[in-house]
Amino acid sequence: MQRQFPIDRTILSPGTVSINVQGAFIVEEASSRPSTPSDDGAQHDTDIRLPNHKAVVSHVALDIGGSLAKLVYFSHEPNSKDLGGRLNFLKFETDNIDQCLDFVKGLQDEFRIQNGSRSEQMSIMATGGGAYKFYEDMKRILGVEVLREDEMDCLIMGLDFFIAEIPREVFTYSDEDPMHFQEPQANIYPYLLVNIGSGVSMIKVSGRQQFERIGGTSLGGGTLWGLLSLLTGARTFDDMLRMAEIGDNGAVDMLVGDIYGADYSKIGLKSTTIASSFGKVFKMKRQGENQAEDHGGLSHESREDDNDASNSQPTFKKEDISRSLLYAVSNNIGQIGYLQSEKHNLEHIYFGGSFIRGHRQTIQTLSYAIKFWSKGEKQAYFLRHEGYLGSVGAFLKRQPKNWGRRNSFEGYPVPSAPPPDLNSQMF
């Protein structure tokens, strides 16, 4: 008779362990996370506590994209392994990849001190385009094994984990309840993942490791960042989001109310519905030019007349431009996502990627688009760790098959000595 496999026991070698997710929860207070240096270049996101995991985890995972490098690693609670540990979530600007690798090198040193092992025993799981672009740099700086994993595989594996295992992770949005959490569930297929990075990929997931990319669009986060950097001079995406929060898109967009003077209730359009993104710009600029002509502003008789002409041109606030463009990109992505869900008969639509960043206006716009086009029959689902799907998936790749899934270790045999080849049981 086979014995039950202890879920918190190290399997075969450091770096290959099972993770006990029983009792897992998201740490709500940032102050409860172990402190890290403020000048390390990292942006820290909420951790996930694993109070019942006590075994050693000797690998970290990186998802290196064009803009951000996302890092996931496990750490035990200070002073006592009996308290379990946590998954830590950090991101770095990809342009500052050296800071990210320096941070990982610090993790290697901590691992060696805590476990009395050589730092070479800590391995790196890497995915995303940067896993290839910075492969030699990672090997040279860290001096450890770097295992590269397929980006799409990791995205789906990470999302599956969050949907099925982590309470208060997945939520829907409404004005009345901005974060209505969904309970973890076992029956999660099929679904559509709309992953928004620099561009957008839409992936139909039919089952475990059964997926296909069914569409996408080049108008994604990179479009927003690029145009706003040209139009507003903003230097970071977070700056752009802050401007959008206080902007008024009605000063730039042509709304239904601008055309009809009220709601167009017959076809379900409110007066605040956007009829044309940036639709007021040309009209207002043309009005300014006409006023300049009427007052001789186009005359070249004097420099003073030229100055009057330029002063008569309407000005648009960068905050209004930011909000308008954010709505334009998000609405477009939401509508395409809905159409793909209809074409492939997919009820659940999950939005992921670092474009979202928990930003309320972005979430609100994507949610509204799905509800509007589906006439309220479908909802958009979001995640609190939406930017870490790939890095979590890469982290899972180092685990035995089905780790972290409830009841997945029932009947799992204890390896005998010498241990058997378990390659067929690994992801």
**Largest beta-sheet details:** 7 strands, mixed
- Order of strands in the sheet with the most strands? 1-2-5-4-3-6-7
The proportion of strand residues reads: 15-25%
Terminal Cα span? 26 Å
Structural class: alpha+beta
Kindly state the percentage of residues in helix.
25-40%
Uncertain parts: 1-17, 31-38, 298-306, 405-427
What is the element string, with H for helices and E for strands? EEEEEHEHHEHEEEEEHHEHEHHHEHEH
What is the C-alpha radius of gyration, as a whole number of Å? Answer: 25 Å
Mean pLDDT: 81
- Specify the number of helices: 12
- Sum up the overall morphology in one term: globular
Number of strands: 16
Tags for this entry?
427 residues, alpha+beta, 7-stranded mixed sheet, 12 helices, disordered N terminus
Write the layout of secondary structure elements.
Blueprint: E1 25-26, E2 43-50, E3 59-64, E4 68-76, E5 85-93, H1 97-115, E6 123-127, H2 130-133, H3 135-142, E7 146-148, H4 151-165, E8 170-172, E9 180-181, E10 191-196, E11 200-207, E12 210-217, H5 221-232, H6 237-246, E13 254-255, H7 256-260, E14 274-276, H8 279-294, H9 303-311, H10 318-343, E15 349-352, H11 360-373, E16 380-383, H12 389-396
Parallel strand pairs: 3-6, 6-7, 10-15, 15-16
Antiparallel strand pairs: 1-2, 2-5, 3-4, 4-5, 8-9, 8-16, 10-11, 11-12, 13-14
Describe the structure.
By secondary structure, the chain is an alpha+beta fold. 34% of the residues lie in helices and 19% in strands. It has twelve helices and 16 strands. The chain has helices at 97-115, 130-133, 135-142, 151-165, 221-232, 237-246, 256-260, 279-294, 303-311, 318-343, 360-373, 389-396; strands at 25-26, 43-50, 59-64, 68-76, 85-93, 123-127, 146-148, 170-172, 180-181, 191-196, 200-207, 210-217, 254-255, 274-276, 349-352, 380-383. The strands form three sheets. Strands 1-2-5-4-3-6-7 form a seven-stranded mixed β-sheet, with helices on both faces. A hairpin with a 3-residue loop joins strand 3 and strand 4. The protein is globular, with a radius of gyration of 25 Å. The two termini are 26 Å apart. Mean pLDDT is 81; it is low at 1-17, 31-38, 298-306 and 405-427.
